Amino acid sequence: MLDEAEFGELTRLYDGAFQAVQKLRAEQGLTLTQTPVHEMFEPVRMRYAEVTCGDDRYVNDARHHRLANYGPPCVQCGKPLRTVKAKLCGSCMYPVFP
Questions:
Q1: Which of 1, 10, 39, 97 is the most buried (most CB within 10 A)?
Q2: For the segment 56-83, what is each residue's pLDDT rounded down to a tens digit?
Q3: With contact defined as beta carbons under 8 Å apart, do 98 and 87 qualify?
Q4: Residues 46/62, Cβ–Cβ less than 8 Å
C-alpha cells in the first residue's frame, strides 16, 4: 500500500508516461499497438517495485494501492477495511462497530 507521498510520486510518473504515450502517438500517427507503451511506463514500474518491494509487472496497481482509499485494519483479522465507511470486513465478515 502507498502512503500519500509515495502515491503522489507514482501519480506524477504515471501521468508523465501517459502524456508521453499520447504525444508520441499524435506526432507519429501510431496506433496503440505500435507504441512502445511497456518501455515508456518503465519508470513507473521500477519505482513501484522499489517502494513496495514487490512485482513491477502491473503498472496500473500503482493507481489503486493508495492507503487513504481504505479503512483502518479489521479488529478481527487485521486486513484493511475496503472503505473508510465499511460496516463489515470484506475478508472475514466481522462487523465493524462505530
A1: 10
A2: 677 777 788 888 889 999 999 999 999 8
A3: no
A4: no
Cα–Cα distance for residue pair 25/32, rounded to 1 Å: 7
Together in a domain, 43 and 80: no
Task: Please check whether residues 74 and 57 belong to one and the same domain.
Answer: no
- Domain identity same for 57 and 76: no
* Cα angle value 89/95/98 (rounded, 5°): 105
Instruction: Tell me the residue type at 38.
Output: H
Cα(77)–Cα(64) distance, integer angstroms: 22
How many whole angstroms separate alpha carbon 24 and alpha carbon 37?
10
In this prediction the pTM is 0.75
